[in-house]
Design brief:
By secondary structure, the protein is mainly alpha-helical. Helices cover 78% and strands 0% of the residues.
Length: 264
Amino acid sequence: MSSGTLTNEGNNEEMVPAAPSDVSRESREKPALWRVGSMESDQRHGRIFGVLFILTFLTSIPAALIFDSVALDDPAGFIAGSGNENLIYLAVMLEFFLIIANVGTAVVLYPIARRQSRVLALSYVAARIMECVFIAGGIIFMLGIVSLRQDAPGAAELAMSLGALKDWTALFGPGMVVPFGNGLILGYLMYKSGLVARGWTWLGLVGGPILFVSNLGTLFGWWTESSISALLVAPEFIWEAFLGIYCAIWGFRRDSPILEESVR
């Protein structure tokens, strides 16, 4: 074989090297276009994450107020005929959409958060799902109270028991899972990744444990729910409200290290 010609030994045909073409140039340009698209996709995920977080407020707070005022303050009176059961159905639907929004926040965040830590990203998804398990249980208990009103209006003690079970689901779900999920896990993810301003993440990192201890004290009877307990909820509440509003309007911080990888 000569130094200037490539041959195929089987059929002695010359193999001529392909000349450079525009295809290689296009293939070099595609990664840059893909990276720009990834940044825009990340920001879209960030805004959806924020909107879903806002929806968790718009569904959970009205639902809790309706449940308490219509049935939970006096379950026996409710099944005896006081209160509007259609309001309970409305609150049930609100909590159903709360479940969707809760899981949605974790699913939307996961593709980005896993760049920082796959374990923490999965942990946040798991925490959200566990929270929703308790919420779903509470929905069933409330529907049970409505069923008693329709079928057994004299079962006051059973209605009281179902109301107490609903309160327990609220204590363990939003009360004890959320401090770990939205407080510690999400707060640490946001702190390490810089997806939002790190100073704000301390509200979750500190507020989560405070909320957990507050609800732990309620569980063991160290104290009763009071204005002080409500005050201890404030840091976690502000942290989650900040996340929703900030991300819904601005998305994630563009100088976050895990977003910078998308534009390098």
